[in-house]
Design goal:
homodimer, alpha/beta, eight-stranded mixed sheet, 13% strand
Chain lengths: 277, 277
């Protein structure tokens, strides 16, 4: 089969090389960044680097749009315009309401793999990036059931677990489990760096983990934050309220309340990660 | 040499086994929890399990107090009372102002190794826990220079890097780099668990890292939070202010401000972890 990948960064490049290795697909890639395209060719992520979306789409049965969130809608529209009637189209953007509303074509279903690292770029792409990862799909009433089924089957063969979800539910979830942690890491790293000036060598493993995703590439993340701004703002407001409650407990030296807040967190952690984690 | 370890949990047990393996010391241990003492003997962390502090201190040239923060002062006092005139005494508690003020004996110097895991207990103790870790020491005007030098030399031989710091500076630093990250992990995990109910399988590596220290044992952490309550409350207030600024930027859809906050976090991350991290 032929697969087109539009945008060969960490995610697109990993889709490409996984499609080559696991589906035996012939993969065409295109990227506005010629250096990224060269890396993708040199690393064998794609079979062919193309100059245009139309060229990459020739004969493709499936197209993955893996460009920054701010460019997803325009790119999906260009891909749908160039793609055959039988080609399924999906994207990998971190927010799903806007693209689901804008791109109402029977061949299209939005998607979002919960995979990645703090690294970006084709240089870090790898075929096993999606192994065991949840990959959300957000079919709408306009998505043909057969398109959804084909995309779900493809990503399952890339190693991921497809999971259908409403676009609104998706965006509410990622506001809390992905976007908020990035904001907290940013806030924490700035304070830690300020506190640590002239006090070297103190970065233990827990601080390192806590700030690992801080300062993620602005070219990607400013758009993500803005597209999900309303739901992320709600998550931040809840966070501020919880922090205020804890600060009050400290001010009152209320050991019982502090313990109960900590035990609630321990219970939530068990819910989230399982008791063995 | 003979070393006494009072409290054979994760940290005390690791001090004990590192002292045995790296200093060739004969290590006596004592713990209020008989089960922990049995584990320490069974795992070979200590040479001898004792029933009392006085028994553990017999002939000891150095004593490490590794009990929960709330019990540190009373335990250090009991140890100083039982220890020989030539025995140096230190503790490993996460806050340093209170113990530095209370325990003014020439043989005593407070300490705090920046090491540990989210696991606690003698079962997880290991000889290499302090390898490369910063180990803060907080000598006061009452600490004999020779006591400081002996403790610093001992912990260097355990693999750590001793670093002298004022108790106040220490507590201000750990409020931001250790206690605040625990509070943020607690606040995040509760929200994530609530958001995730009925939406299984979404816990990616970045969320897992972000909540790793959530719900740390209350028996240890309630005391830590309370002892450092004033400085931790200040760190929380700064965090709330930063979150409020970001929320405002989202509400105003201010892409330039969001990008500049994110770039400041990226720069802080480079400051903190180095460019390669």
């Amino acid at each position: 089969m032929r697969v087109a990948v539009i945008g060969v960064g960490l995610i697109g490049g990993s889709v490409a090389v996984a499609a080559r290795e696991r589906l035996g697909a012939l993969v065409s890639g295109v990227d506005l960044d010629m250096a990224a395209l060269e890396v993708a060719v040199a690393r064998g992520l794609i079979d062919r680097g193309c100059g245009t979306v139309r060229e990459a789409l020739q004969g493709a049965e499936a197209a993955f749009v893996a460009v920054p969130v701010g460019a997803v809608i325009a790119t999906v529209e260009a891909v749908l315009d160039a793609a055959d009637a039988e080609c399924v189209v999906t994207d990998v953007g971190s927010t799903k309401r806007a693209v689901a509303a804008a791109c109402d074509d029977p061949r299209f279903v939005g998607g979002h793999p919960l995979a990645g690292t703090e690294r970006s770029g084709a240089g870090y792409a790898r075929a096993d990036l999606f192994e065991g990862a949840t990959w959300y799909l957000t079919p709408t009433r306009r998505t043909a059931p057969r398109s959804y089924e084909r995309v779900a089957a493809l990503i399952a063969r890339l190693g991921a677990q497809p999971e259908a979800i409403q676009p609104e539910d998706h965006d509410r979830l990622v506001a809390t489990i992905s976007h908020l942690p990035h904001v907290l890491a940013n806030v924490l790293v700035s304070q830690a760096a300020a506190a640590a000036r002239h006090l070297p060598g103190f970065v233990g493993p827990s601080l390192r983990d806590a700030v690992r995703v801080a300062g993620a590439p602005s070219a990607i993340w400013t758009d993500i934050y803005l597209e999900n701004g309303d739901l992320l703002a709600l998550a931040i407001e809840r966070t501020i309220a919880h922090l205020g409650e804890f600060r009050q407990a400290l001010a009152a030296s209320d050991a019982a309340l502090i313990t109960s807040l900590n035990e609630a967190a321990a219970a939530a952690r068990r819910d989230l990660l399982g008791t063995a984690s």
